[in-house]
Design goal:
The chain has 21 helices and 17 strands. With 518 residues, the chain is an alpha/beta fold.
Length: 518
């Protein structure tokens, strides 16, 4: 090797080392003092050792105003590349808050767009680690335009590859819409915030004084807005949780989710389900207890656990196969479906359908929530999202009616009419057009009113109605229920149903796309 070539290599590597150092030692210290890892530390922790390959490390910012022409902006404040997570290739972009607060400029945005483009082209997941002060005002039109280009790519990638956003610092302004267009959002306690306008701008425009935590902190988005899917305690926990999520997901829409040998027999009985599930349809219980008994090793990866708690959604395995679970939770709102629950469930159903993940639906639902408040919030519009999502889904759909499944709630939790391949009921399963008490009050209103003993007549008519209509044998007799099963055999029954439906073929009519209610 010539001395001249060696000098050139050394010069390039010296320049690379300066760039990799980011904003410098003091900026790194501030990042650590805030309880945060640096952009490169996050990547190093997430990816399998020695597998990360960076691109565009030498990218230079385009801003020339207000002294930026003299500023050093290493890698333009974002690290991009690809590597392996548990042996599977994944693309990543990680914003570097040590470099001018990780602000989003034109070249910064182009690097992120390139990462998403390559992920889509190669059919690999993309993970965005967001830690940014927002748009770089000194590159006004460049930043604004590149935001649009990034949003365009998220939408084009939607349903084709998994897109995961990790909010590991502030995410402000238009940049907050990037995570919102992705599939999953995780936030970190105490160090992450999301809002389209920060406290100073909110105060200046709408005269509201509020701090970052109350405007867009993790509790706001986990419990109230529903923007976030999970809240984790620190950066490492966030990255560990991301690894777990990826273990349930295929790399793209043309693959099946990864199979994993769990060592849990598909024939295992769940003996204690007979005591967990009450026979009284009005008695409360926690659906988590049912789910953990029927899935492999009791492991349930729940999504949005703090939002719309009357419905549960998340990933699990049954006989090693990934499934998406949608279940009413009677301990909250008796399991009724309201606006938030409908939105939560519909989005999850559509994600599972996009990525070939079978759906297991556990019914214990009194109906959609009724009343003036519910109507004004748009329960018709939002509730129909679940109807649309299930009817649209072509993946295996297996439903179990544990107790009550009434009215539109029965349909919205995936009945045979909405495309369930199999629908089983427990001996406690009740399927009917409306709750039996309401039906009796309507059907026998005049007879009850004219009776010498109205309450006695009402009780008599209720028993008569329930014996005739409100039991699983009535629905099974009309072929709406495939079988009435012992609750202890739920797991073996689901495992066999999954086996037979795994290679199901179902195709939607030719069209550009449907028009989902919003």
């Amino acid at each position: 090797m010539s001395e001249e070539m060696l000098e050139k290599i050394q010069a390039i590597e010296a320049q690379r080392a300066r760039i990799i150092a980011g904003g410098g030692a003091k900026a790194v210290e501030r990042q650590h003092a805030a309880g945060k890892m640096t952009a490169r530390e996050r990547i190093e922790y997430l990816f399998d050792p020695g597998t990360f390959t960076e691109f565009d490390v030498f990218a230079r910012h385009l801003g020339r105003d207000y002294g930026l022409d003299k500023a050093e902006v290493p890698a333009d404040g974002v690290v991009t590349g690809y590597g392996k997570i548990d042996g599977r290739e994944t693309f990543v972009y990680s914003e570097d808050f040590t470099v001018i607060a990780g602000t989003f400029g034109e070249m910064h945005g182009r690097k992120i767009c390139k990462a998403v483009d390559l992920a889509l082209k190669m059919g690999k997941p993309v993970i965005g680690m967001n830690d940014s002060g927002g748009a770089r005002v000194t590159e006004e039109m460049g930043a604004l335009s590149t935001y649009g280009q990034l949003f365009f790519r998220h939408v084009r990638s939607s349903g084709a590859i998994p897109q995961i956003s990790l909010i590991m610092g502030p995410v402000a302004g238009g940049q907050a819409y990037s995570p919102a267009l992705m599939d999953f959002i995780f936030m970190v306690e105490k160090s992450s915030y999301m809002f389209i306008a920060g406290p100073p701008l909110v105060k200046a425009v709408v005269y509201e004084e509020i701090d970052e935590a109350n405007l867009g902190g993790p509790p706001i988005h986990a419990k109230i807005s529903g923007v976030s899917d999970l809240t984790v305690r620190n950066d490492r926990a966030c990255l560990d949780t991301t690894r777990t999520l990826l273990s349930y997901l295929p790399s793209n829409c043309n693959e099946k989710p990864p199979y994993s040998e769990t060592g849990d027999s598909p024939d295992r009985m769940a003996e204690d389900l007979v005591s967990i599930i009450p026979t009284d349809p009005k008695k409360l219980y926690d659906m988590h207890k049912v789910i953990t008994r029927i899935v492999d090793n009791g492991v349930f990866f729940e999504i949005k656990p703090e939002f719309a708690r009357n419905v549960l959604v998340g990933f699990a395995r049954i006989n090693g196969h990934v499934v998406g679970i949608v279940a009413n939770n009677p301990i909250f709102m008796a399991g009724a479906l309201d606006v938030k629950a409908s939105q939560k469930a519909a989005r999850f159903i559509r994600f599972c359908n996009a990525f070939n993940i079978p759906l297991v639906n556990l019914h214990d639902v009194p109906a959609f929530l009724i009343g003036s408040k519910s109507e004004r919030e748009g329960i018709i519009r939002h509730g129909s999202k679940m109807l649309y999502a299930y009817a649209e889904a072509t993946v295996p759909k297996i439903s179990v009616v544990l107790r009550k499944s009434y009215a539109g709630g029965y349909l919205a939790m995936c009945s045979k009419d909405l495309g369930a391949d199999f629908l089983f009921a427990l001996p406690t399963g009740e399927i009917c057009l409306m709750g039996p008490e309401g039906a009796v009050n309507i059907l026998f209103r005049k007879e009850i009113a004219a009776s010498a003993d109205p309450e006695g007549t009402r009780v008599e008519k209720l028993k008569e109605f329930e014996d005739k209509f409100v039991n699983p044998t009535y629905s099974a007799g009309l072929q709406h229920v495939d079988d009435i099963i012992d609750p202890r055999r739920m797991r073996p029954t689901l495992a066999r149903a999954l086996d037979i439906t795994m290679n199901k073929f179902d195709k939607l009519p030719p069209k550009k796309h449907g028009n989902m209610p919003i």
